[in-house]
Amino acid sequence: MSRIGKLPVAIAPGVQVELEQSRIRVKGPKGSLELDTRGHVGINLSDSEIRVSRPGEDKKSRAYHGLYQRLITNMVAGVTQGFQKDLEIQGVGYRAQLEGRALVCYLGYSHPVRYEPPSGISIQCPDPTHIAISGIDKQLVGLVAAKIRSFRKPEPYKGKGVRYVGEYVRKKVGKTGVK
After folding, report:
1. pLDDT tens digits for 87-117?
2. Which uninterrupted H or E stretch holds 99?
3. Is pLDDT above 70 for 137?
4. Domain 83-164 architecture
């Protein structure tokens, strides 16, 4: 039995869960999310919790058991609290700003990099070197953060680039002028 899969998902107050066949909808104060399990797992809904069960003991069912439990847990957490990723920009002249809804980054290229976030994602720039990405879908928040980081990954010699807050970048020594 999967250790993660057998844990019940607590339904927070103010959250409505609808279940029809293999589709689960979660509605809360921040929005609504839905997930199609495609019949890989069974979902049992009670008043205060959701339990995920697997139909068999084959390899695919065991693999999906913990996955879908964690996806449903993230859906309930997303519609109640939301998720946020923070990025920081390091480098002389590197900065970011918002133009309307779009994020414009100046990262040492000959042109600014413009990024239009997908719906359901909000981006803030509290100062020119910090970017805050928030939304209710954990996967989408992480995907947008990874996309913005990929515009200029931190390089190993000076550490310039876009990185997650708290990310450690191992620095290399570089060339020496010793003969």
Report:
1. 999 999 999 999 999 999 999 999 999 999 9
2. strand 95-99
3. yes
4. Alpha-Beta Complex (3.90)
